[in-house]
Design goal:
Largest sheet: none
GO molecular function: nucleic acid binding
Pfam family, one: mTERF
Order of helices and strands: HHHHHHHHHHHHHHHHH
Family: Belongs to the mTERF family.
Organism: Handroanthus impetiginosus
Keywords: Transcription, Transcription regulation, Transcription termination, Transit peptide
Number of domains: 3
Distance between the termini: 50 Å
Shape: elongated
Radius of gyration: 24 Å
Low-confidence stretches: none
Amino acid sequence: MVTKLPSILVADPEKTVLPKLQFFHSIGIPAHVLAHMTSRSPVILRCSLENRIIPFYDYLKNLLQSDKKVITVFKHAVRPFSHIALQRLPPNVAILKKYGVNESHISSLMVHYPESMMMRSDELVKLVNKVTELDIDTSKSIFIHAIHVLHMTSKSAWEARKRAYHKWGWSESDIHMAFSIHPLCMLLSEKKIMSVMEFFVNEMNCEAKAIARRPTVLIYSLEKRIMPRCQVVKLLMVKGLIKGSYNLLSLLAMTDKTFSERFVTKYDNVPGLLDVHHGKLSLRDLGTDSSELAKVKLV
């Protein structure tokens, strides 16, 4: 806090600092959250309580209808009490409503991506138009995720991620389709894109373009979820213990408990299965026949 705002050391403790701490405590902000807020953005303690903090709180409380959600905004927003926050929020809310975004989705955008609600109104209009050009329905929740991703992504980063997908044969329409299904796929680093695509295509025999229709699978952790789960299922299929085709997204989306019950616990007598599930061994480590592995595909 002192490193970011040395002048906090000479702020009047009774008149400047204490009233803010008391107010935040009064609306239910836990001590550890308040510590996080003030250490990350100590200017909060130098803002006017009457002219900035309370009006901003009142506006958010009216918009979100929940102290818990307001606290979440305070916790995650980088500049919640800057002078531009109250100037930009009302017109931005009006713009989103004009384009058909319902109040619940506006509230969700405010809670989860508060910085995206504090951009300039002309910038917001450009992003809304860009998202609608991609045929993403403004009435759907996916719309707010698309706005957030575009706001957070520079042109150079966007192009770099497109190039990564192009290396796997994705066309422009494939990329647009993937973005419209799960926008967060365009927030992934190039390294993450390449490593996950390489595993799906080269290790799991998936078609690269098929991943564009299920971009959600790219978001999961490669080491902690994708590799262990896919290899467990593939091992069981090679051994003939499970048959049929398995949907990649369904396998990755199910809870740890469900996956373990369906594919691990009941087959725990299979040599090496538990180590594969825990990420300690790969199928190659087990000496599994590569020709047999190549026959197994996830869809």
